[in-house]
Amino acid sequence: MTAQKVEEKLFQNRYLVDADNPHIRIKDPEVCATRCETKQCAVCCPAGCYTVEEAKVTLITDGCLECGACRVVCNTYLNVAWEYPRGGYGILFKFG
Ligand code: SF4
Ligand code: SF4
Questions:
Q1: What's the predicted TM-score (pTM) here?
Q2: Residue spans per domain, the chain
Q3: Considering the domain 34-85 in this protein, what is its CATH number?
């Protein structure tokens, strides 16, 4: 049996988007753009939900693995409002 890469395993998961109800929100985008130099959320997110362009940070929660890392690393500015998705929405992990 050949080993699978993490990206291949992630691709097997399914995700149900809760349109108009993102379960994670950047509280104040201005803080990201003007005060946060390291933008660790974009570095740590395994699903690539955060992108940085110029200084602007964009969050798209589709594909979020609900790991909570972005909330943890934003510990200087506490600028991430984080909840689990509503019941039935979000990630459906496929194991094995
Ligand atoms: S770590 Fe927090 S403050 Fe910094 S860019 Fe990400 S969400 Fe914004
Ligand atoms: S909870 Fe994890 S996967 Fe979801 S946006 Fe945050 S870091 Fe990315």
A1: 0.88
A2: 34-85
A3: 3.30.70.20
